[in-house]
Amino acid sequence: MEITVDEVTRVAGHIGIVVRIGEDWVKATLVQKEFRGFEQLLKGRLLEEAPVYTSRICGICQVSHALASVQAVEHGLEVEVPLNAQKLREAANLAGMIQSHLIHLFLLLAQPNLKPEFTPEKMPQLTLSCISNIVRCRDAAQRIVQEICGRAIHPVTIVPGGFSKTVSSEAVSLVAELGGELSRDLNALYKQVHPVFQEELEERGVTLQSRYMSTLNGRINVKDFNGAELLTFSKEQYREYVEEAEADEGYGKRPYLKTLGYPNGFLRVGPLARLNIGLSLWGNQAGVLWRGMRHESVMYSYARLVECIHASERIRVLADELRDGVKASPARLVFKEGEGFGAVEAPRGTLIHHYTFDDEGMIKCANIITPTAFNALAVEKDVEETLRMHRGGVEEMREMALKVLRDYDPCVPCATHLVDVKIE
Amino acid sequence: MKVKIALEWLSGCEGCEVALLDSFNLLLGKIQRGEAEIVYAPLLLDVEDYDCADTTIVTGSIRTAADERRVKKAREKSGALIAFGSCACFGGIHGLADLADIGAVGEKTGRIPSETRLKEAVDPVWRVVKTDAAIPGCPPPRHMIDNFLENMLSPSTADHGKTVCDECLRRRSEDRKITGLRRDLTGVDDSRCLLDQGIPCIGFAVSSGCGALCPKVNYPCHGCMGFSEDIEGQDRGVARAVSALASILEPDVVEESLKDPVGFFMKFTYPSFKLRRKR
Amino acid sequence: MKPWIISFCCRYCGYAGADLAGVARIQYPPNILIVKVPCSGRVTPLHVLEAFKAGFDGVLIVGCHPGDCHFTSGNTLTEKRVKLFKKVLDEAGFNSCRVRLEWVSASEGRKFAEVVEEFTEELGKIPV
After folding, report:
1. Interface pTM (ipTM) of the complex?
2. B245 vs C84, C89, C94: nearest CB
3. CB distance from B45 to chain A under 8 Å?
């Protein structure tokens, strides 16, 4: 039996999936169908403009791309960033995360009911008024990004060294206020929707035994299924531990852990990984809403919602520490030949930017590994395992495969890169 | 009368989709009042195809054969086709990948399904189908989107007579002679024109509409709204901008001043430049 | 009759030089369309662009020698603009050899002819 979906709806980007089902085996292949070539286009560009280009890799996780990018520039040119600027950048990243998660949970995954008639009950059929509330929450998160980055989509103020213009104490106070509002609204939303997850959990259970990866302050951590620490390395060392293979079909790379080989070296990144590792973006153990480790793919969605709540609280804490505002701190750029690395937690997981450049500060080469690329192998395996465990008719299997894919919130514009990149 | 809206997407970053979602409540209001309905939007609905739409919003630009098919289908099925965002209007920032000849790179790998093969070069929407309106910006400014959603059938587009300079509040010097262009923003004066301070800002040639929001935060304009010409005349905008900048640079710095001239003059509009590289 | 060249010649120097070539019966290739302009400074990258879009293979701008411009600094302006535009064209993937700026005085008929000859030959060698 073969199930092919040419264009999966309700995911970001153009992606298809092909599932071949045999007697006792299943083979799933993601086919990424778009390619714009950012790694290639960065060649010959000005190094300090990398964030301007790379934020356009994706309009959803653009803040994270810009931050990973500017980090790589700063790392390569040995530019220091004042602590206050780092904190404000973190707040922007978290706000970007909230709006991204909300898009996925309530506008994509949940399949909003965009008809005027009221349809009550659970997800996946949200009512129009529910959606309005979520749009308002997103609005608050986007407003935070705008106050810090100059605009809500494709940040402007993020330059090597910090911010291009002083962020006033009024702006930071507004950020704190919005963070508080978000915290309240998201907690209310959580109470409304969390019972729904229980049903899905029972239906699908644990399908994949995987490793989890996350990054904090430039250090990347991998834990195994039982929570034991497997690997830890700094962002500059990523190539010693991570290798990238070509996808069987379509544009796309399949990164994997070198020590475990291909394809066994697959891993998972993103909200599930972050909460499992306990090394979340805000440096503390996840609080009351998450305990221990959970492995069901459905828990990705639950993790996303929990992260939104944590992120909003963290934004408020950060903004409170920055009440005097954050001064502009663009750095003097002294160009010399070299390379730079950046690693941040984007909404969907660990994001790595790596550039090499010449003595005039022109980019020679770029390698960008996105969280959706990191998750690709896991998605394929998860679909395979899920369908092996839950056999059914063609329609049922098709729906199940798509559900699994959507759990990971793939961001296809991010994920399409080619392996033909040689680091010079 | 219910307006049928379709949302088609080509090759882009989906920032325009997110921008539309930012203003989504306006659209939801119309849906709730029975004034509009979304008949097709692969991002939001499990609808594989549609019969016809009154207005189709197209985001992204034409990079693959599949993109061409999609936009042609949208043209056939729609009353009005709106190019939304700089990719649809001008080709967009990823058009610069053609400088690196990525079409060839895509072909080498051989595992690419034929419909998703890259075309020779990126094209903005108007090169392939007739476009009824264009809303530029990367993404378009919020107030332009809100305006557009309020007045579905008559979107306001950028005023080609004005540039970002007209909206920028920074003080410009009367007599401009620029002795060099620099690459960092240290010691920037918050109130003076960025170009006067040697920071390469192309706002002087770029369509107004965004409120000069980048210069407002000390960041030079990169031209995402396109040149102050109509969408089919962007290459003239390039030529004019080159002329203008060269005129105010000191002769000995003209050639050395810009290390990445295409990045400066055509960051978002390279695909619209007629004389670009073809394979 | 390829390659087709359009030449913008300033009235005081370039055009007069071309005229002199004609009067003195100095031969040069016929595939050239000469446009008289009051000053080479009148010619901008926009004209160059439109010329190529119209189908010309080469654009030749002819002005007064530096220091001799009838309008003082028109030729300086042109020189800066052409320099920058050529750089932009090269980087954009268009061979900027197709654009040429030359200084020809009213008495340099022979030089004008030589320039056209040379430019024609060069254009013949560039792939379309």
Report:
1. 0.95
2. C84
3. yes
